[in-house]
Every structure is written in structure tokens, then in C-alpha cells.
Amino acid sequence: MLYFKKYDTDFGGKLIALCDSELLGHRYSEGKVVIDLETYAGFYNGDLLNEEEAEKKFTKDDVHSANIVGRRSVAIFLKKGIISKEDVRTVGEVPFVHVYRILS
Length: 104
Known about the structure:
By secondary structure, the protein is α+β, with helices and mostly antiparallel strands. It is built from 3 helices and 8 strands; from the N terminus they run ββββαβαβαββ.
């Protein structure tokens, strides 16, 4: 299962927060990089969905920015062509991606 939350932005797109459910409530760090899914659980804690349901919640054109954490969540963004494998980083074997669109 995945936690999915969508925020409206002032730029007409959406900020998507997507996180594998078992990661929420934990803190991961490696060097200076920290993913704190305990303190910031509320940012991700939205609808609890399976992968298929989460995939239907947004389109590539909807996404203005996104915070994606976890293997299954990242896989959805890869499948939709929003990110590439080169965009994915890991902290303690937990993959994550931050997406930001540059508006022209």
C-alpha cells in the first residue's frame, strides 16, 4: 500500500506526495541526507491506496512537483515517464526522488 496526498499549487499544477506505507513513521539517514518520515508523516499521510489506484490519481501533466519515497512509489513515477532511473537517489537502501518543474 502507498500513502498518497495531493496539494494544489499556485502554478496550476499539483504537488504530489507518495510514500510506501511501511516507511511512514521512520527516519532514514546516510551522511548529511535525511528522510524524516516520522516528523513529517503528515505531509505524506493521505489516502492509503494500492499501486493501481495511486497510478490513476494523477497524470504526468498534473505534476508540478513531487516528493516520492519508496520502491513501489518510485516505480510508478518511472512507469509514467515523469522521472528516469538517473533521478533516483537512495538513503539506507530507500529510494526517493524530488521532482520540480521549471516554469517558463
